[in-house]
Amino acid sequence: MNDFDTNSNKRQIHSISETNGFLTKMYSLMAVAVLISALAAYLTMTVFRSAVMNMPVAMMWLILLVPLGLSMGISFNANRSPIASMIMLAILSIIYGFEFALIAGFYTGSQITTAFVSSAAVFIAMALFGTFTKKDLSNWNAYLGAALTGFLVAWLVNMFLNSPAVTYVFSFIGVIIFTGLVASDANKMKIIYSQYGNQVSTNGLAVLGALQLYLDFVNIFMFLLEIFGGSGNNSNN
């Protein structure tokens, strides 16, 4: 699903109304995923709080690693099985909601709200830019992909160094990278649908786009939460 050439000069095969319909479906799926995460986080912190507190550490680590497998599963199967991919996206959203609930204990309600509202504003602005710009942002993907790879390597190194100052600086860099990815991913999905929409499952392509944008949003939110929370040094306790 990721082997599309967005630099191709292939003639667009869909009308504006069809493309808008696809984009509406993609953004709706992404919005539903965010709402599922928010609901899952709320239930984790309230209804299932005691069960989570008594959960074995091994089980918790397993749950934290599941999203990687789900993301890969959606990426490889979205075109073959759109319904299964939608279900996996819902499960992924629930797990991230669970993880958000665990992290939320280190921040105040005001910090979480500010980070979420800021993330939503940044996401909407960049998604609109990526969707409606007449420019092809394909080059952004190459540069941002390289930047993200270097960033992840540096982030892993800092996990061992455990420097709060470096972590704080990395949070700003992370916001910049994923903000750019929102625009480039939105632009990329629109181009892919316009050029290849008759060759793949529209629902599957919408799920794949929703996954990419959801992960972009999640990362922006987490990095902004780190920034507004002062590198996680503030606690509700």
Automatic annotation (TrEMBL):
Q: Into which family does the record put it?
A: Belongs to the BI1 family.
What InterPro entries does the annotation carry?
Bax_inhibitor_1-related
Where in or outside the cell is it found?
Membrane
Q: Which residues are listed as membrane-spanning?
A: 26-45, 57-76, 83-106, 112-130, 142-161, 167-184, 205-228
Q: What is this protein called?
A: BAX inhibitor (BI)-1/YccA family protein
Membrane disposition = Multi-pass membrane protein
Q: Which UniProt keywords apply?
A: Membrane, Transmembrane, Transmembrane helix
**Which Pfam families does the record cross-reference, listed alphabetically?**
Bax1-I
Q: Which PANTHER family match?
A: BAX INHIBITOR-RELATED, PROTEIN LIFEGUARD 4
Provide GO CC annotations from the record: membrane
